Amino acid sequence: xxxxxxxxxxxxxxxxxxxxxxxxxxxxxxxxxxxxxxxxxxxxxxxxxxxxxxxxxxxxxxxxxxxxxxxxxxxxxxxxxxxxxxxxxxxxxxxxxxxxxxxxxxxxxxxxxxxxxxxxxxxxxxxxxxxxxxxxxxxxxxxxxxxxxxxxxxxxxxxxxxxxxxxxxxxxxxxxxxxxxxxxxxxxxxxxx
Amino acid sequence: xxxxxxxxxxxxxxxxxxxxxxxxxxxxxxxxxxxxxxxxxxxxxxxxxxxxxxxxxxxxxxxxxxxxxxxxxxxxxxxxxxxxxxxxxxxxxxxxxxxxxxxxxxxxxxxxxxxxxxxxxxxxxxxxxxxxxxxxxxxxxxxxxxxxxxxxxxxxxxxxxxxxxxxxxxxxxxxxxxxxxxxxxxxxxxxxxxxxxxxxxxxx
Lengths: 193, 204
Description:
The complex is a heterodimer. Chain A is 70% helix and 0% strand. By secondary structure, chain A is mainly alpha-helical. Chain A has a single domain (9-106, 124-192), classed as RNA polymerase sigma factor, region 2, helix turn helix motif (Rna Polymerase Sigma Factor, Chain: A, Orthogonal Bundle), CATH 1.10.1740.10. Chain A is globular and about 55 Å long. Chain B has a single domain (52-201), classed as Sandwich (Immunoglobulin-like). In chain B, the strands form two sheets. In chain B, strands 2, 5, 6, 7 and 8 form a five-stranded antiparallel sheet that branches. Chain B is elongated. The model of chain B is unreliable at 41-63, 73-112 and 189-193 (pLDDT under 50). Classes of the chains: A mainly alpha, B alpha+beta. The A-B interface holds A 1-2, 6, 8, 10, 25-29, 31-32, 35-36, 39-41, 43-44, 47-48, 57, 60-61, 64-65, 67-69, 71-72, 130-131, 134, 137-138, 150, 153-154, 181, 184-185, 188-189, 192 and B 2-5, 7, 9-10, 12-14, 16-21, 23-24, 27-28, 30-32, 34-36, 38-39, 42-45, 127, 173-174, 176-177.
């Protein structure tokens, strides 16, 4: 398995370093540019990470609020988006823990969990079913493997960067990604058969 | 191509997971607004301003003292005002007994009691280009009360009439940064939903 991040057009965000510097000084326009550049990716990551994907928007907002407050302490030697996803990962893990505690106290709303958005376009029904299958399969991957898998394969961070972000050694990271990949592949193959 | 991408099932799954959600402009606006409101101490590195840790601890103790003082002020003022109005007297009595919190409500500018008293706000910043005072006395409008820069470029000040009582306020820097007064105690403001600085105008 490659140790290099996958290049993806959606990841090609050209954020001027001066924008981050201006945001550090409190420039709200610069911060707005940062939000515009990363909001979609953050929502995508949060939806894949959270036990309750409906909380993704709130969690992304919480992440950006924390980021903005912490910006004066940001050091440029750290890659900005690695820092952002580190904060987002922390927020998601905290939210999952809280959600788990709450779920253990309350009856699960299976109807809500199974609820899927309806499609007006019947041609998109097949894509929708596949999308749901992928998300169900991903949700079954343990959180500690899923986060690394997402950071590496979906958000395009190298193992070296993920090691810096999480403190987990690269050999262990690669093992986690492999386990997540294997689990995803097996589950989806079962779905198809 | 990686092992994962060589596998057709996994490759398709990755393609699915890489799809970005549609851009949600309204959500982004909410994020920016929430962040702007939350970042209340952006000028931490400004010379002469307390560091966050020091500032917080000092302000906390000051807030406790001022809160106690404001309770006394509120009690006294309310007692004075209600002495001429039986209707408000009956309303004020249980409020004081039931909850001290009612004494901490900001005094709104529409209250008829007490003539407005000139009060000067001062803010120190050599980097800001524009500073204004926002508070419950001007409906938190950044355009209502612009401050004037001193000739040395360090101090910003403005004097405005405010009705006596406890008020919550902050400074708006360059129309974008909501900043507390580092010299004043702070408290959560019910109007804005975030921390604000406190000023007690007038004396009982």
